[in-house]
């Protein structure tokens, strides 16, 4: 249960009510984070615009890799909703259940490519020790990513950290998107 209850639907501005209604039609319910973000209509609208920019086909980091990185960020931040949603997005993009289940053990698993390992390592560094990242970390990323891709990946990681921390802090519950066994809060580092 979220730590902050939704306001009555009529208390949200019309454009937020429209968005919540659309979620209800698409997912069968309003997703818990939307009730929370809806309390800040302008911020929520800005976040949705930013999310739409990340989801463009021309974005330098593809959907499957963004979803994989997002699962790991969600695990590290303890956001069950985000693990649920991003595992669903990864399975939809790639259909690789074994990889989705093994994200917390990416260092020891042979399922991950060098590019995925670089992205997951960078996601962990930015999430856990951002102020202590060594300058050669970018040089290691350059083996797999262009500078534009590194910038795009870092922007995505920052966005996902904001979202996961917000949802975890306010207790946004899972929706049940993904029936992956053991998708809970794996925080192995």
Written account of the structure:
The chain is globular. It contains 9 helices and no strands. Helix 4 (63-77) runs parallel beside helix 7 (114-129). The protein is mostly helical and 189 residues long. It has 2 domains: 9-54; 63-169, AhpD-like, CATH 1.20.1290. The chain has helices at residues 14-27, 32-37, 41-54, 63-77, 80-94, 97-101, 114-129, 136-141, 147-169.
Quick structural gist:
This is Alkylhydroperoxidase. With 189 residues, the protein is mainly α. The chain has helices at 14-27, 32-37, 41-54, 63-77, 80-94, 97-101, 114-129, 136-141, 147-169.
> How would you name the oligomeric state of the polypeptide chains in this document?
single chain
DSSP E strands, number = 0
Overall residue-averaged pLDDT value: 91
CATH topology of the largest domain: AhpD-like
The parts where pLDDT drops under 50 for at least 5 residues are 181-186
Keywords:
single chain; 189 residues; mainly alpha; AhpD-like; 9 helices; 60% helix; globular; oxidoreductase; CMD-like
Describe the secondary structure blueprint for this structure.
Blueprint: H1 14-27, H2 32-37, H3 41-54, H4 63-77, H5 80-94, H6 97-101, H7 114-129, H8 136-141, H9 147-169
